[in-house]
Every structure is written in structure tokens, then in C-alpha cells.
Design a protein that fits this description.
single chain, 360 residues, mainly alpha, 66% helix
Length: 360
């Protein structure tokens, strides 16, 4: 569709707007939101009918969660439908970055879907083996990073950049592939840990998507990159269109995921969205900034790692329950307090991350 519209740009001046990434990003946002709003109720009804008892509730979790029994999961199907259709309609499909990013999102979404399917059918938290899941994710992420390296200019494409210090660049060579894969897989699973309360994950995801939409657009524009003294990565501006679709689909999903949630995102959505944002971070050379902007996700993942590691060493727990949002629930915070306060933290961290674009 985009190619056809641009082809008429020379004859019809109005069609020139389709050349602009900003216009197409807005179009992708609106399109994905409308798709989720329109088809969301049908998808929810279908999933509720097929899943029966819905997502299993943790027996050791907060007591308030038991009232959520029967809520269907796999809401990521709604989100990914909006993102995929909007990307196909509005993004420049000749861009390697677009295809690589969507490869990761769809692949991670498929892994999450299978995991959700096993949990629902078995009515157990034991889905796909953790080792098998991580192995598949690393293979997919490694392939994605390889293509990202080939799409860029060597040796910069295999280098690690640092926020606040423009001239500090570390060329990792082929070690950039496992490093980049770690960033992508880590992002996917960190978002997965965060998805535990109604609306908790989707808003920080939209905040991160908006932040990286700005970063992708500026990094892919030679004029803005030179003005801000950030590293210019040709072609990454097109990723702003995908991130616009993420924001739109996220808004649509939040309508149904707002408490009391009519549907949960599930691994289908959390793995896909986390992997997508992680891929954008690698492509735009903002991997470290990803840890700042996605600080809420990092905090959630670290709480699980610390809890499990410390328990294996000492038999004791650091937190009342992990991930850390459950710890605060155990302390007496209401679910809405946890969610809104985490949203506030996500906004603050996003502003700090975006400040790295100028503080150099």
C-alpha cells in the first residue's frame, strides 16, 4: 500500500505526506488502536470460550488475585494483530530493520503463545521448559543481531556505544551477536516478569515504545543526529512506525486490560513486545539506554534473579514474594497503588533515558 501511494506522490501532491515517517507513525498508531478496539471483544469472547478456566492463578500469590480466576489470557494476539497489520500498511517494507524487528516480535510471540497454551490446557504454571524457551529465544535473537550487523556499517554496526559519552565506542566484533541477543532475550523476559497485575506491563511498554520511537527517528535522521551529537544509524528511523503501532495497540489493549481486566496479555504479548523493544535498542545502538528507559522491567527481572539465587544459597528470601510487584502487594499496597506508582517510575526513567540524547 505504501509503495503504491508513494508512487503517486509525483502526480498528486497530497500523497507526499506518505513519504514522512512522522505521518506514517501517526497513521500506524491510529490504525493499530482501531483494529484492537474493533476486534478486541470478539477475540476476548473466543479466547474465553476456548480456554474455559482461563489463566491459572498462583496458589501462593496475594489473596486478592483469586477473584481473577477465569480471566482469559493470550491477549497478546490482539496486540500483535494490530501491530502486524499496521506495519504492513504504513512501514517501508524495503527496510531490513523493519523485517528483523517483526521477525523477533512474531517469533517471541509464537514462543509465548505455545507457553500460554500449555499453561491453560494443563491448568498449571509449568508451561514450556525454561531452558528450551531460552534456547529458542537466543537462536532467534542471534539471527536478528546478525542481520542488524550486516545492515549497518562496519565496524560501528558491531560496536557498543555509551550514554553521556559520545566518543566512547567499544567494538565487540563477533561478540556483538551474543551481547545483542542477550539484550533482546533479557528485554523479552523482563517484560514477561512485569506482566502480573492489571495494566502494570502495558503502560511502561507504551512509554518505552514512545521513548524509542523518538530515539529511532532522531538516530535515523542525519540532520538531527548531527545536531544532538548522537550516533547516526541510517535506516532506523523507519522503526518509529512500528513503535507507533505498538503504542496504538497498547492503548487499545489497555481499554480491556484496565482493572478489572477482561483479558491478560500473557506470554504471547509480553515476550513479543519486550523482544521488539530490545531489538530496536540494539538496532539504534542504545542498548545501555534501554536499561534506563526500561528500568521497571530491569527491576522486576533482577528481583526474581536475586530471590531465586539467594534462596538457593541460604534457604531464605530477600523479598516477601517475587517479582517485586508482588512484594509490595504483600506489604499492603493495593493493586492500583502498585500499578500507578510503577507507571510514575517508568515515566521518570524514560525522561532520564531521553536526556542522554542531549547530555553529551
Amino acid at each position: 500500500m505504501l509503495t503504491l501511494l508513494v508512487a503517486f506522490a509525483n502526480e498528486v501532491q497530497l500523497f507526499n505526506v506518505f513519504r514522512y515517517i512522522t505521518f506514517r507513525t501517526g497513521g500506524a498508531l491510529i490504525t493499530s488502536a482501531l483494529i484492537v478496539f474493533m476486534f478486541g471483544p470478539r477475540i476476548i469472547d473466543s479466547l474465553r470460550l476456548r480456554q474455559g478456566r482461563g489463566q491459572p492463578i498462583r496458589a501462593d500469590g496475594p489473596q486478592t488475585h483469586f477473584k481473577k480466576a477465569g480471566t482469559p489470557t493470550m491477549g497478546g494476539l490482539m496486540i500483535m494483530t494490530g501491530i502486524i497489520i499496521s506495519t504492513l500498511l504504513w512501514a517501508n517494507l524495503s527496510s531490513m530493520y523493519v523485517w528483523v524487528t517483526m521477525l523477533v516480535a512474531i517469533s517471541f510471540g509464537a514462543i509465548g503463545f505455545y507457553d500460554d497454551y500449555l499453561k491453560v490446557t494443563k491448568q498449571s504454571h509449568l508451561g514450556l521448559s525454561g531452558k528450551a524457551r531460552l534456547a529458542i529465544e537466543f537462536v532467534v535473537a542471534g539471527i536478528a543481531v546478525y542481520f542488524i550487523m550486516n545492515a549497518g556499517q562496519s565496524p560501528f554496526s558491531s560496536s557498543l556505544t555509551f550514554p553521556f559519552i559520545k566518543d566512547l565506542i567499544l567494538n565487540l566484533g563477533w561478540f556483538f551477536i551474543p551481547f545483542g541477543a542477550f539484550v533482546i532475550v533479557g528485554a523479552g523476559n523482563a517484560v514477561n516478569f512485569t506482566d502480573g497485575l492489571d495494566g502494570l506491563a502495558i503502560v511502561p511498554i507504551m512509554i518505552a515504545a514512545a521513548s524509542f520511537g523518538v530515539i529511532a527517528y532522531l538516530s535515523g535522521n542525519a540532520v538531527f543526529a548531527e545536531y544532538l551529537q548522537i550516533h547516526f544509524v541510517p535506516g532506523t528511523g523507519e522503526l518509529a512506525v512500528i513503535l507507533g503501532a505498538v503504542i496504538g495497540a497498547g492503548l487499545g489493549f489497555l481499554w480491556f486490560n484496565a482493572p478489572p481486566a477482561a483479558i491478560f496479555m500473557g506470554d504471547t504479548g509480553s515476550l513479543a513486545l519486550g523482544g521488539l523493544i530490545g531489538t530496536v535498542a540494539v538496532a539504534t545502538k542504545h542498548e545501555i539506554v534501554m536499561a534506563i528507559i526500561g528500568g521497571v522491567f530491569v527491576m522486576e527481572a533482577l528481583s526474581v534473579i536475586i530471590q531465586v539465587g539467594y534462596f538457593k544459597l541460604t534457604g531464605k528470601r530477600v523479598f516477601l514474594m517475587a517479582p517485586i510487584h508482588h512484594h509490595f502487594e504483600k506489604l499492603g499496597w493495593t493493586e492500583s497503588q502498585v500499578v500507578i506508582r510503577f507507571w510514575i517510575v517508568a515515566v521518570i526513567l524514560a525522561l532520564i533515558g531521553l536526556s542522554t540524547l542531549k547530555l553529551r
